[in-house]
Design goal:
The complex is a heterodimer of chains A (209) and B (291).
Chain A lengths: L1 H11 L2 H18 L5 H21 L2 H17 L10 H19 L15 H10 L5 H20 L2 H12 L4 H8 L3 H18 L6
Chain B lengths: L1 H6 L6 H7 L7 H20 L6 H9 L4 H46 L7 H8 L16 H10 L6 H13 L6 H12 L6 H8 L4 H11 L1 H23 L11 H15 L9 E5 L2 E5 L1
Antiparallel strand pairs in B: 1-2
Classes of the chains: A mainly alpha (209), B mainly alpha (291).
Chain lengths: 209, 291
């Protein structure tokens, strides 16, 4: 059953993803063989993506840093149990998402937000330009305000819906990958995504054109 | 906000807004700190002493898929063992009771001619109806008043040899469970004017005792003994209540003896009434049969 599942996942993977998964598997094999330094390659490759997902889920940079470290430590401790039935990054994401969800459920009542600094990029600059023609300090203030509003809207979603939106819209994963990470069907992922977007649309109406 | 809307014209969707979140990144110096902290935590995790139960739990987790079937089997096994244990305990209790009574009655059968090779439960069925006390469904205390009342009702003794045999049997009986009954039975046989001729006949020649017992009941003795014995119980209860300082007069339920009598007659009149005996009990000063 697991073998069939792994085969089907492999078949739907794009060539790039497949190559990436093979490279990861090789590095994992080295770590499993006792080459502890090889784990650094995996950590350097995925730390930003894992951090981004966790940060967008919990909206606190200190907690995100702590949980990212915990994710890599747990991955390192249990890497011998990784059998290669799924890709390494899916497995790593699953560990990270589960750790974050556990943390969020434990600290449901404690909500303290701290934001990362906004890094101007081509795509994000275009969006900001479309929203405002302010420049200088006014533009920075507007970006801060937008960050807060986006964060507020995301935090109004349930943990499940927030996870799906974060993985799909912010991290750019596919439906099947999200389904594997979250542990539900692709249909459920689509449904959660649709519902979450409806809620976000209602919350962010003043910014939509 | 309205200013912004008027100033911009291009389309912005939810997806675009969420894309802005991608631009939220930590500065490069953050990762240097992150890496050093991770190294420290990694080393701490390596040298951390794990609790003794980590090993068994990890081993058990490897067979996590077996949890459900193993758990279900365990619950099923416990249920089956419990049911079997309790049913066998009940059966043992019933059997041991039957054996005690049966052994005693097997001793009785030496004198009365009933086959001692038959099963204990059969002995219970066979001998029980021939005993005069079995007709009391209500509990009759072993008091002098009650014995006196019974002796007044029953005709005088006719077989001194049988009385002697029963007395010997009573002396030789080792079972403490049956002693009070045997004692009372022997006392009753010893005392003059107790033994019913029908009872003697049923005890000596037990074949066809069922018909005789029913006819005996229908004729006079049992039907008369029962209300009298119950009345004696009520008298005793009233006396005890008076001793305890109970001011009011105690009135027994008038229908109780009548009801008990009818119940006994109804059970005895049925075909195969001996099979309807569910419990035969002999305690300190009472002997009771439950149908």
């Amino acid at each position: 059953m697991a073998f069939t599942k792994a085969i089907s996942k492999t078949l739907v993977m794009t060539p790039e993803r497949q190559q990436e998964a093979d490279t990861d598997r090789e590095v994992v094999r080295q770590v499993q063989a006792g080459d502890v330094a090889a784990f650094d390659k995996l950590m350097l490759k995925y730390r930003e993506r894992i951090y981004s997902v966790i940060y967008n889920l919990c909206a606190n940079r200190e907690d995100a840093a702590d949980l990212t470290q915990a994710t890599f430590i747990k991955t390192f401790q249990s890497i011998n149990r990784f059998q290669g039935q799924s890709s390494f990054f899916t497995w790593l994401y699953r560990i990270g998402v589960n750790a974050t969800l556990t943390h969020l459920r434990k600290n449901r009542l404690r909500t303290f937000f701290s934001f990362e600094q906004f890094t101007e990029e081509e795509k994000s600059s275009e969006i900001i330009d479309a929203l405002t023609d302010k420049t200088g300090a006014d533009r920075e203030t507007f970006v801060k305000e937008l960050q807060e509003k986006l964060n507020e809207a995301l935090q109004k979603l349930s943990i499940k819906h927030r996870t799906v939106v974060t993985l799909f819209e912010i991290d750019g994963l596919g439906h099947d990958e999200i389904a594997e990470i979250v542990g539900c069907s692709v249909g459920t992922v689509r449904s959660r995504l649709h519902y979450a977007k409806q809620l976000l649309q209602a919350e962010l109406q003043p910014y939509l054109r | 906000m309205s200013d912004r809307r008027s100033q911009t014209s291009s389309h912005v969707s939810v997806e675009d807004l969420l894309h802005v979140k991608r631009a939220e990144r930590p500065p490069p110096e953050f990762w240097a700190k992150f890496e050093s902290e991770l190294r420290q935590r990694q080393l701490a995790a390596l040298v951390e002493r794990r609790s003794w139960w980590h090993g068994p739990v990890a081993a058990f987790n490897r067979f996590g898929w077996l949890r459900l079937p193993v758990g279900a089997m365990a619950v099923l096994a416990v249920t089956v063992v419990s049911i079997r244990h309790y049913s066998s305990t009940d059966r043992m209790r019933d059997d041991s009771y039957g054996v005690v009574v049966g052994n005693k009655l097997a001793l009785l059968s030496k004198t009365s001619g009933i086959s001692a090779e038959s099963k204990p439960t059969e002995n219970v069925r066979a001998v029980a109806p021939s005993q005069p006390v079995m007709l009391r469904e209500e509990t009759v205390p072993k008091s002098r008043d009650a014995n006196r009342v019974v002796s007044e009702v029953l005709p005088p003794p006719q077989d001194a040899g049988l009385i002697q045999q029963v007395a010997e049997l009573d002396d030789s009986a080792g079972s403490p469970v049956f002693e009070p009954l045997a004692e009372s039975l022997a006392t009753r046989f010893r005392s003059p004017g107790v033994v019913d001729p029908v009872l003697l006949e049923a005890t000596v020649h037990p074949v066809g005792f069922e018909e005789r017992s029913i006819s005996m009941l229908r004729s006079h003795s049992a039907a008369e003994v029962l209300p009298t014995a119950v009345a004696a119980t009520e008298q005793r209860r009233s006396r005890l209540l008076a001793d305890l300082g109970f001011a009011g007069t105690y009135a027994a339920e008038p229908s109780a003896p009548e009801h008990a009598k009818r119940s006994v007659i109804r059970h005895l009149a049925e075909d195969g009434w001996d099979r309807s005996i569910s419990r035969l009990e002999a305690e300190a000063d009472r002997f009771s049969i439950r149908f």
